[in-house]
Every structure is written in C-alpha cells, then in structure tokens.
Design a protein that fits this description.
The protein is mainly alpha-helical. The chain has helices spanning about 10-35, 45-60, 65-75, 80-100, 105-125, 130-150, 155-165, 170-190, 200-205, 210-225, 260-280, 295-310, 315-325, 335-345, 360-375, 385-395, 425-445, 445-450, 455-465, 475-485, 490-505, and strands at about 230-235, 240-245, 250-255. It has a domain at about 10-155.
Length: about 500
Amino acid sequence: MENALFKNPIIKQILDYYATLWALDHLNSLAGWDLRTYMPKEGVVDRGEAFAKISTLSQKIFLDNKFVSLIKKAENEPDLNSYEKGIIRILKRSLEKYEKLPPEFLEEFDKVTTEANNVWEKAKIENNFSLFEPYLEKIVNLCIKKAEYLGYKGHPYDALLDEYEEGLTTKEVEEFFSSIKEPLKKILSYIKNSSRYKTEHPLSLEKYDKKEMENVNLKTLEFLNYDPKKLRLDVSAHPFTTNISLNDHRITTWYRENDFARSLFATIHEYGHALYESQFDSKINYTPLCNFSGLSLSIHESQSRFWENMIGRTKQFIHGMHKSILGINPNLVKYNVEEIYNYFNLVKPSLIRVEADEVSYHFHVMIRFEIEKGLMEGKIKVKDLPKIWNEKYKEYLGIEPKTDREGVLQDVHWSSGSIGYFPTYSIGTFLSGLIKYEIEKDIGDLGNLIKSEDGIKKIQDWLKEKIHQYGGTYTMKELVKKSFGKDFSPSYFLSYLEKKYKEVY
C-alpha cells in the first residue's frame, strides 16, 4: 500500500536503504534492555563487544557512498513535505556524527559504557564510588574527545547537549536555569514558612508488600489505559524505558521496603515515555522519524513528567486507585484520599532526584548541569565528585548525602555515557506546564478528565494529535510553535506550581 506521507522517489529510496539500519537499531535496543534487566552479569563483556561491532557496522552501512549521495541529493529536492524534510534533517545529523567519529572511538565508547553500567550497579549496591570511579574517568575523557570530534561553536558541552536536544547550547541552559531559579526559591520559601510544612509524612514510613505493590503498578497502568499486548513492566536498578518499536515498549520500576510512592511514580513516569512512542503515526514506522537519536528529549521528558506529576499526583487519580493502594498494607486503611494527596505532594528538600517533589526537583538538575559542565571544562575531576556533589547539595538544598548511594551514585546516566541529558528533564517538565494549559483550553479541566476512562482516552488522543504522531519530524521549538502557536515559556509551569502549592500549603 502506498504511504501517503512519503511521495518523493528519492525519499522512498532512502527509506528502502534505511530499513537495514532500523533493523540493527531494533535489535540493539532489545540487547540494551536485556543488559539492564535479565542478562547474567558475566555476559557483560561479550555484550559490550557485540554493541561495539554493531555501532561500527551501522556506521559503515550509513556511510555507503550510495546512501550518502541519496541524502545529499534529497536536500535539494523541491516541494518536500514536513515528514520528508524531517527525515533529511535527522539523517544529516547522523551523517555528520558518523563522518566525524572514528570507528575505533565508537567501539571503545560502547565497550566502556557497557561494562561501566554493570560496575555502576555493583558500586551503588555496595555504596562504593571508588569501584565506579575509573570507569567514569574513562567515560568523561571519551565525552571530552567526542565533543572535540563533533565540534562546537561556544562550549564543548554544547556538542553533548545537542545529542539530546537539537541545537541546545550551554548558554541557553544557563539562561533557562537563571530564569527559573529565583521563582522556584520563592515558592519553596513560601512552603517552608507555611504552618502545614513538614519534612516527613507517616505514609513514607509505611512498609508494603512487594507482590501487592506490583499489582498496584499494573492496576495503575490499566487506569492509564495501557495496552498489555504492546507494553511490559519489569524491575531494574534505575527505572528506564526502552521503546524497541512502535508495538514493543519495555518499562521498568523499582521496589523498596517502604515509601510506596517511589515505585508508583517511577512506573507512571516511564509509562509516559512509552505512551509517547506508542502513539507515533504508524506511517512513520521503520523510518528515522522513530529513531531515538532523532527525537527531542525535552519533548520525551515533558510526556513522562506530565503523566507523573499532573496526572499521578492528583486527587482524582488517587480516588480512582484508592482501593488498590490500600491493599499494599492493612495499616493504610486509616489514610483517606486527602492524606494520600498530601503525601504525594509533600515538598521538602531531599537527596534523590527521581523522588523529589515538583518544586525542588529542578535544583537536582541544576546541580548535575553544573557538574557536567565543570567536567567538560576540566575544572572538576572525577575523583573529587563525591565531595563536590555533597557540597552542591548543601548549597542548593541545605542537606548533605551521607552515602555515595544516595549521592553521586544515584543516577544511571553517566554509566551509559549520557552526559548532556539532564537539562532536558527540567526543560521537559516546564514544557509540561504549557501542555497542561493547552489541554485544558481545548478539552477541559484535567481533574475532570482523569475521573473516567473516556477522559483518559481524550487526553491520550489530544497528546497524539498535538505531539505524539509526529515523532522526530520537528524540533521541540518547531513543534511547540506548530501545535500551540506560541514559543516555549517557563511561565506556564511556574503559574501551575504557584496555584497548586498555595492551595496545598
């Protein structure tokens, strides 16, 4: 059947050739998911070798003269539609990367990060940064080398930021954080001065039955209208999502002895990632528009943070899940919807980013941004990271980690070489504020929509129409302008925080 989105004959040739690259990426994603879930630990070196060979094989296939000439020829084609232009934009970015990064560099990067992920897990369990330090040292040096290969105009960190958010620069991130830092401090100060402020909620101390919590997470996915034929939930050392294809999505969560919100919100967050890629237009399947490297991570994170915070932390969601939640521990029967709502929306400085409240969360990201920037400048040394990490937490949040596990070892990102990713968490979260505003303008109050299965479906359909269907067709700025007729602005999320937390506190 003729694909109505792709009519240009050169684009069709490109997509025929690209099918092999898609297949390699498909299997690479599956192997990556397996590495972080069920793979026997002794297999890590072999997996690293396999990843390295796949990287250089993909590079070789991509740089075939025929494929390169097709890409360059397509650039000059008149009357390409938006989808076809998106394909060329993404392929040109990949081409530039493959032309600049030597095969031996790609092999080394994959081998080091594959082993590093395994060592990071062990170091976190054993609370021992020194185990991970030599691997992180190699990763930072490789990232510095990568920036030099790729090139940059302003700052070496720009080359890494651009991998996750096209065109994003260090200067733009600094300006963004500068614009939100004082307003966030003001909101946090208001909360701390409230008579309702407290640093602990009794629900965070309540233990739960893991099997029952697994059931709650599955019930939550059902509440959020997931498709069990396309998505599975597993466990990992750090929650993540791997979207293997349009019809195959793997998300993970984690479990502790107590504080069940940790597991619940991890599940909802990762569901948001999976939903995004599951709602791509089926006509862009098998194309570069579905490739993770072609997507805006700010858009990706706007989806996970939207579902985690603006759906999962509401009274309407709690009301719908209340009976299931009470099943994780007989003691919970004494907690009503209002008390669980206060638990879910407790604002306090904390040590773990993924468990942070909506207000203080962004200080966690600022800390990581400053550290990564310092690492790329050579002003921060890997050996000093635990000390610097603790100092910055004291400066920004007034608290200090007592262990590496709750400090510098808490995130998985550095072990996979993902330096430059963290700023998209905050940018994406602030973008979710604009998305909430636009949804309510178009289809009604979110709280009312959450009350019914039909309402949840309306939210999903709206997100598909405005954001999801396009995949990587547009950059983040282009998509915001196209779908909402305005530029990205932090003001919508700040207004949401002020309104919500002045009611809570």
